Amino acid sequence: MNAADIPLLSATALSRLVRNREVSPVEAVEAYLERIDRLDGKLNSFITVCRDEVLEAAREAERAIAGGRYLGPMHGIPVAVKDQVYTKGVRTTDGSKILEGFVPDEDATVIAKLKAAGAVLLGKLNMSEFAMGVIFDHSYGTPRNPWDLERNPGSSSSGSGAATAACLCATSLGEDTAGSIRNPANWCGIVGLRPTWGRVSRHGVMGGTWSMDTIGPLARTVEDCAITMQAIAGHDPKDPYTWAVPVPDYHASLDGNISGLRVGVLTQLAESDTLDPEYRAAVTAAISVLGDLGGVIEEVSLPLAEHCGTITTGISAPEWASLRRRTFTGRLDELDHNTRIRYLRASIIPSQTYYKAQKLRALVRRQVLDALERVDVLVSPTGPVPAPPVESVPGVHGKEEAAAELAGRSAFTGPFNLAGLPALSVPCGFTSNNLPLGLQIGGRAFAEETVMKVAHAYEQSTPWHRRNPPI
């Protein structure tokens, strides 16, 4: 096939060609490298491209497959990961110039698992500095959204969203604390899964908020998400917070049959005053599709939903500041302005505020768990608005704007990160100016297969995943 078309394939479609030796891993890597060279200057999605290393890994994958040692659906598939994840011999910057020269001497567990599955690493992806949201000046260039270069591709996992949507990697990994997998997926028109807290190892990942951080896949289809998740999930003795529970065959669950599954619509989010009108219409239509597919639709109330952004910030900010104290001591002037302000602000949050946020978190978790005793999944918009413009002077400029920020994206994604439960964003439409919109589907602990099953059934019944950005 034409080499330029290889990156446009889904990871699953490419996997079949690689397995049948119709496309070699080397051909795939070369096609992706050519596309990165041609397009990433517009997107700034990569911080480091592992050109020599990935070609050697692709040659080894090609030899193994030719020798009958095929490892499975990720074998020879070019992936990229957020630059928050340790990669042996490859710099890992956490999005900051402070760590520009840091080269880990070991792989994170998720990298070791990807390599064991045969995946080959294209490079490290751009992100906000120390995974702390919108900043003034990205150390490695401002990431851009491939659907509109003047739009934001997401929050801290911005490079993962942009690169995957623009077909600069077959699939990628991001990190989600308060929504940083789901938000880039939402704004870039792809699938992003936040797994159950403890489903995927965080050993070798530069953390932000220990009680909410999760590593998960961003992909162009639910199938791609499933095969990537299969490679990284499972207990890890190096991470005491991982759970020793069985990992199901995620791909096998994607049978398209959701007849009789109970689908709860989170009314506080689906009917929020902050929700963009076009977004509201797209979510309403998506819920109708789930009903047509046999899902049993019912409304579910989550009274604390609108406060989840505030509760999340009350926990994530002081945990992040505590974790970074040693790194930032004596180096505050080297940080981006917004990073510095967030750190200083978080450092003076009173302990009673953190404690109250934790108590409220327990109430949110109870409300979500109670809802999931009545339904199999919960659905809502992934966020309130499509991708906003890249700000020339980002930040909060007053009390009212601060309150609006807390009632924004984190209020929509917050119920699931506060409850430690899996949640996924899948494309559910486009605005009149061709910006993607995402439907959030959340489920019970360790029920990622149910979440992906519903998302896949919806995806295959709609055209949204077949669109490519006009870059």
Structure description:
The protein is of the alpha/beta class. It has a single domain (3-466), classed as Alpha-Beta Complex (Amidase signature (AS) enzymes), CATH 3.90.1300. Helix content is 39%, strand content 13%. It has helices at residues 11-19, 25-43, 51-66, 109-116, 158-165, 182-188, 222-232, 267-270, 277-292, 308-328, 337-347, 351-374, 399-406, 409-419, 448-460; strands at 46-49, 78-82, 120-125, 171-176, 191-194, 214-219, 262-266, 296-300, 377-381, 423-430, 436-443. An eleven-stranded mixed sheet has the order 1-3-2-4-6-5-10-11-9-7-8, with helices on both faces. Strand 10 (423-430) and strand 11 (436-443) form a beta hairpin. The model has no long low-confidence stretch (mean pLDDT 95).
User: Order of SSEs, N→C?
Assistant: HHEHEHEHEHEEHEHHEHHHEHHEEH
Q: What value does the Rg take, in angstroms? A: 21 Å
Largest beta-sheet characterization: 11 strands, mixed
CATH architecture: Alpha-Beta Complex
Please tally the helical runs, counting DSSP H or I stretches of 4 or more residues.
15
Which residues sit in consecutive blocks of at least 5 with pLDDT less than 50? Answer: none
Number of separate domains: 1
Distance between the termini: 22 Å
Order of strands across the widest beta sheet? 1-3-2-4-6-5-10-11-9-7-8
Percent of residues in helices comes to: 25-40%
Percent of residues in β-strands: 5-15%
Alpha-beta classification:
alpha/beta
Within CATH, the superfamily carries the name Amidase signature (AS) domain
Total strands? 11
**Structural shape:** globular
CATH class bucket: Alpha Beta
Average pLDDT metric:
95
CATH topology: Amidase signature (AS) enzymes
